[in-house]
Amino acid sequence: MGLPIFVAGGGMAYLLGPTGGYLLAYPLAAWLAGTGARQGAGRMLAGLLAGLVAIYAGGLAWLSIVGTAIHGRRVGLRPFLLADLVKAFVVLLVGQRLRERAAHLFGG
């Protein structure tokens, strides 16, 4: 998407740093979120939540390796969980709306 994720260097330094687990979990999360995208609101929500679980599982597992599990939850979960759930709900609403419009425009 053109986001500056690896703008300051990238490579193994990023993947071995504190955010490496989150970065490695993104492909799985994208696949999980995408599986429910055409299946209706319930499956879309389940896919979005499964994607979040995958990202947090990868990130917290890695933070537990480079630190402690308690520290990982304190800095890698609590500050972000509520905002991520709100964003998932917004994506659900927008995604449903776009799906309806695309079906109307393209006859699907």
What do these coordinates show?
By secondary structure, this protein is mainly alpha-helical. The chain has one domain (17-102). The protein is built from five helices and no strands. The chain has helices at residues 12-15, 20-35, 41-66, 69-76, 81-106. The model has no long low-confidence stretch (mean pLDDT 84).
Keywords:
108 residues; mainly alpha; 5 helices; 74% helix; 0% strand
Topology at a glance:
Blueprint: H1 12-15, H2 20-35, H3 41-66, H4 69-76, H5 81-106
Helix pairs in contact: 2-3, 3-4, 3-5
The major pleated sheet works out as:
none
Characterize the quaternary organization of these chains. single chain
Round the Cα radius of gyration to an integer and report it.
16 Å
Give the helix/strand class.
mainly alpha
Counted beta strands:
0
The total count of helices amounts to 5
Order of helices and strands: HHHHH
Segments where pLDDT lies below 50 for 5+ residues? none
What is the terminal separation in angstroms? 26 Å
Number of domains: 1
Q: Tell me, what's the shape?
A: elongated
Strand content: under 5%
Which percent range fits the helix content? over 70%
Mean pLDDT: 84
Provide a brief overview of the structure:
With 108 residues, the chain is an all-alpha fold.
